[in-house]
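Minutes, project check-in
Item: structure for the 359-residue chain
Input as provided by the requester:
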Amino acid sequence: MDAKLHKKLSERQEKGTLRSLSSFEGFTDFFSNDYLGVARNNSSHLPAAGSTGSRLLSGNSEKYKVVEQKLASFFESEAALHFNSGYDANLGIFGTLPQKGDTILYDELIHASVRDGVRLSWAKSFSFRHNDVNHLEERLKKAEGAVYVAVESLYSMDGDIAPLREIAALCERYDAYLIVDEAHSGGVFGDKGKGLCHELGITAKVFLRLVTFGKAYGSHGAVVLCSTDTQQFLVNFCRSFIYSTSLPVSVLEQNYNVATDFSLEKARRQLQTLLMEFRQRIEGIRTISDPKSPIQIIELGDVKKTKTIAEELQAQKIAVKPIFSPTVPEGKERLRICLHAFNTSAEIDQLIQTLTSLR
């Protein structure tokens, strides 16, 4: 961790104001927000699944701590911290860790949650051209203070993959902190779905990874994978963590269970088989995405054409979303096709036939 962050933690410890996560199981409750007793009342019409408050007040428990440790172990990280969503996590990471005098360098196509977190930071920030390692190096040469580099492993609106090995090597050379958002690659890539950083063998070179559970894992929430020092700093200073009522521990347990579910290996293989089939059969229709990406983008560059094709597909009961500005730049309007392990060859055939007839 950067020396400035250590200094802030030490100052809080010296003042006796260093926060830590605690649980009060078995105590008489005079501290939670469970005003009507719904969260603890098994006879209620709702399940006893509420968290009752933020983690620093009443929403923490030994079980929460244990499951976070299990998540850290599974994803091969020193520590883990669970957030209510990937948006909350990115807002907190970039609004908290970079300090005044530091620099944030981010891919120009980075997710809006990172951009919003950057806006909350006192650090200077600069974008670099999408997946352009040379432009990133130009930025690194001029960066000041502690330097944080933000990328996604798999970009959700292009379906392409970042050159993570090259970026990690650059960050190592320039002593920069690499942060990788694995929202769309977690669960899909890597041994047991541990993500692209794991697949490429670069986790030791990554300062912080973010895995979300609302995509491939079909659940909710997100986990920050980082060092113990970084976890402690976020617990003490990250506003989107401190001031949010935590998710019920049952959600956290569900996230761990689905992440470690061995049966998903079959689904991962099936997904790649279908992707190969899709790419082979769509020949003649250009997609800008990586062949192994479950997100396949057909860029049309025209609002009317994109909308018309999407409506025609939907009329055939084929759900494909059109993407327009400001999500993507004007002139780069596109169809966003997401493939799944449960799709069938017949469904892919209908999709391709319809796209071909409309082309």
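Outcome recorded: Residues 147 and 186 are 25 Å apart (CA to CA).
No further action items on this chain.
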